[in-house]
Amino acid sequence: MPKLPTLLAVSEYFYSLQGEGQTMGVPAIFLRLSGCNLICGGKGAEKDGQLHDGANWICDTMEVWMKGESLPFPQLLQRLDEELAFSQRLAQGVHLVITGGEPLLQDKRIAAFLSFLEQERQGLRPIIEVETNGCFVPSSALLERVSYWNCSPKLQNSGMPAKKRLVPQALQVLAQEKGTIFKFVIAQTSDFEEIQRDFLTPGLIKKEQLVLMPAADSLEALLQHNKMVAEICIREQIRMCSRLHVEIWDQLTGV
After folding, report:
1. What CATH number is associated with residue 53?
2. What is the pLDDT of residues 57-85, one digit of tens each?
């Protein structure tokens, strides 16, 4: 039997409100894991902070998830409990949001950590959300534990080529999960045409699972794009979400 993972590569953790998607506004502890398979903003954006490869937005947490440390499960749990009252809050119904970067790069490690948490905290099974870019098929161990999948596939506006950001098999698996939404970042009206062409028409995802969100890493950009996205959602009868954390804290991270 293969040895189970005992480390998790973590960039940051904090207690706040879920700022996006289907549970926006819910109190949540965020566990941001290190690393990502995509560079939204185009190749080179991670080095100079500038847009490349036709991108018109850039990942607003890149500087965070590119750093971090690998922590043994007992040490991580101790830190979370001491600094965030982690176990207590989760037992009271606060959501655990596992995000990144791309957390499914550490699929087996996440599953092992959740199993460790359950063993150490008398069967604690928190309400879990995972935020993913839809490039990886989740393991069965995660599928049975996660209540909400917040999948955010990337479009051409991310600066990433389709062969890297579009994985039909992963999207089709996630589309079968009851708690899945597909949250798309919209920077211009043509973005919805791309969603229709590449995701809806081929049947990779269902229209009722769609959520459209303005591309914005600042309050100014959010206000600029809100109306455009609202008009698309009204016309197409699609759910819209704003970015609560940007509305409240603007460009501040770790909140």
Report:
1. 3.20.20.70
2. 889 899 999 999 999 999 999 999 999 99
* Residue 254 resides in a domain: no
**Amino acid at the residue 94:** V
Report the C-alpha gap between 174 and 14 in whole angstroms: 27
| pTM (global) more than 0.90 | yes
Q: Which two tokens stand for residue 248?
A: 């409240």
Tens-digit pLDDT profile for residues 149-204: 999 999 998 999 999 999 999 999 999 999 999 999 888 899 999 999 999 999 99
Residues 83-102 pLDDT 10s: 999 999 999 999 999 999 99
Residue numbers of the domain that contains 172: 7-249
Consecutive H or E run containing 228: helix 219-236
Count the alpha carbons within 13 Å of 96 in the hemisphere toward its beta carbon: 25
Q: Which of 172, 34, 178, 180 is nearest to 98 (CA)?
A: 34
Any idea what DSSP says for residue 158? G
